[in-house]
């Protein structure tokens, strides 16, 4: 455990003569001026400062409860995530307090307060709302996928960038020449954004002109996808693309259904790869909805629990990315 | 709240001069001899006995935690059930402790002990293991679907019998003449067993020869279903049935896939109705996997929470059945 005299981020800022935000940026690997970086690094060295935001929060008096904040358990990815978090916590003698916070921001702050008041040992958060400003330094927390500015929080995610690349590589390997990317994204920044970066990188590498539908998540997804398909038809009704990398399995499935309604065959005319690895009825043997870049849910959840419960200081920067894999799900030629 | 002098089931047994199990049976509506029933009913009247098993367990010192014991959150029905239980508890100021107990019976008894020790206010259990003998009279508990012998426990379920009837009625309405029933069931008795009774009743009512596949749940479901199809083909390869009522959406979907692999068209050649109302990706707007008899998950979960948290004595017998509805999901002609 950390002694009471352990230096804080504030001490580092004071020693370095810079703003607290600058220290946070350096620790998070966000660019600052070389001069400031050197000052901060020197101060960290002088004070023997360890990043320990969440470790400090682990009080000796334990409740053996850990709260999971998640939008819902209806979405199959969230459902699997919840199941594996529960299992990983159980192995460590911890019980899971479940908070389905979608649409009720007050719920998330309620649970953050439980952590502040030692009613729970810590929090694992998979959230798309803007709780960053409510997370104090005292709260032991690990976040999945999301990124909160100016908060040194251990984060876990899949290697989304590599996943974006892999999707394009697979589509090309299976004979596609014009893979497009479609996404409906959250307004909040997160690791999943890098799926697009991976797509763009792979296109550039293979000298392919990128082409994508990139829209904030909304109720009009179907209408927007339909007009994307319409805008990509030539006079003979042929499509300008022959491969689709969808940001999620859900949107990949939706897009495939629309293509089929328009008379196109999947995978013969257009191949589709989604992201997440969602199985029908939840079990691997039931098969996927679409061919997919699969997130390693079990390993991701175990890593979240391991980081939350670890006593020592966390490594810097506290972002752990785990590898994804391609799995055939009927909507590709391989 | 119940006063300390409230008569117990033991008092009733003593007053009636019968065994405790006999009192339990009468209260649960399980047949006993007329003589014993009269004795018990007289004793209940004389003592002014009220069934209050779970109400007695609600101690004044509340944790505001309620544990949900469920096999997993991977199965889409369990996932939706968990989500709605969390929401219903939140409305009552309670937090959800989630126990995914599948395959680990020890976990269930751990959680029952939490209730005994007042670490949780009560338990909602959707379980297919044999925890009946561990449930003491002191534990405030509501069970979904399951039935435990010799335990007076408030139970909530869908009206499975009516659902079985409705499935047959719908298949006949859509032109089927030979509806069969297929199920892979748990070894533990529960309300879901009545789906078969409903099927048999409706067949009898409409003078249809019942025909079914009834098997304990196992890994060989696909093989067993395949041979059922094979055994129902005549020399020309025509099927002896034109409608299927499946015990769950999952098995309905699996059976449909096998029929299609065999070259039969669904719903043109064979119509399929499942049970549960499971939506692809979890949301109603995403559509069902198969046409289905839908369980009212939201109302079921609210009823569980209401019964668990209610202070007064529960009605006798403590079994609440909520109505199901038919919903089109693409595998029927209507």
Nutshell version of this structure?
Two copies of one chain form a homodimer. With 334 residues, chain A is of the alpha/beta class. Chain A has helices at residues 9-16, 20-28, 34-47, 53-57, 76-91, 105-116, 160-173, 194-205, 221-231, 249-261, 297-309, and strands at residues 65-70, 95-100, 122-125, 141-144, 155-158, 179-185, 212-216, 243-246, 271-276, 291-294, 319-322, 325-327.
Q: Would you kindly provide a written description of the structure presented here, covering whatever features stand out?
A:
2 copies of one chain form a homodimer. With 334 residues, chain A is of the alpha/beta class. In chain A, 38% of the residues lie in helices and 17% in strands. The first copy, chain A, is built from 11 helices and 12 strands. In chain A, the strands form 2 sheets. In chain A, strands 2-1-3-4-5-11 form a 6-stranded parallel β-sheet, with helices on both faces. A 6-stranded mixed β-sheet of chain A has the order 7-6-8-9-10-12, sandwiched between helices. The longest helix of chain A is centred in the first third of the chain and has 16 residues, at 76-91. Chain A is globular and about 75 Å long. The termini of chain A are far apart. Strand 2 of chain A pairs antiparallel with strand 2 of chain B.
């Amino acid at each position: 455990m950390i002694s009471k005299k352990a230096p804080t981020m504030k001490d580092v800022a004071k020693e370095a003569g810079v703003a607290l935000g600058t220290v946070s940026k350096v620790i998070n690997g966000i660019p600052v001026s070389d001069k400031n970086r050197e000052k901060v690094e020197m101060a960290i060295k002088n004070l023997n400062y360890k990043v320990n935001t969440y470790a400090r929060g682990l009080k000796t008096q334990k409740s053996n409860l850990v709260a999971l904040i998640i939008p819902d358990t209806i979405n199959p990815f969230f459902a699997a995530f919840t199941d594996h978090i529960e299992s990983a916590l159980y192995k460590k003698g911890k019980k899971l307090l479940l908070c389905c916070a979608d649409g009720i921001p007050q719920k998330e702050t309620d649970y953050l307060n439980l952590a502040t008041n030692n009613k729970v040992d810590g929090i694992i958060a998979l959230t798309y709302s803007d709780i960053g400003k409510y997370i104090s330094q005292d709260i032991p927390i690990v976040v999945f996928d999301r990124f909160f500015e100016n908060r040194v929080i251990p984060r876990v995610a899949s290697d989304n960038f590599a996943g974006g690349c892999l999707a394009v590589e697979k589509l090309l390997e299976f004979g596609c020449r014009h893979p497009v990317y479609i996404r409906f994204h959250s307004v909040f920044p997160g690791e999943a954004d890098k799926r697009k970066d991976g797509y763009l990188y792979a296109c550039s590498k293979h000298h392919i002109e990128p082409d994508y539908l990139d829209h904030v998540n909304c109720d009009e997804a179907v209408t927007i996808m339909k007009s994307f398909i319409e805008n990509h038809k030539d006079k003979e009704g042929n499509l300008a693309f022959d491969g689709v990398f969808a940001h999620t399995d859900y949107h990949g499935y939706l897009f495939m259904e629309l293509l089929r309604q328009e008379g196109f065959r999947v995978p013969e005319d257009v191949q589709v790869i989604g992201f997440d690895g969602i199985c029908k009825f939840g079990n691997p043997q039931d098969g996927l909805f679409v061919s997919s870049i699969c997130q390693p849910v079990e390993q991701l959840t175990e890593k979240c629990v391991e980081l939350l419960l670890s006593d020592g200081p966390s490594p810097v920067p506290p972002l752990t990315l785990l590898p994804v894999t391609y799995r055939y799900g009927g909507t590709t030629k391989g």
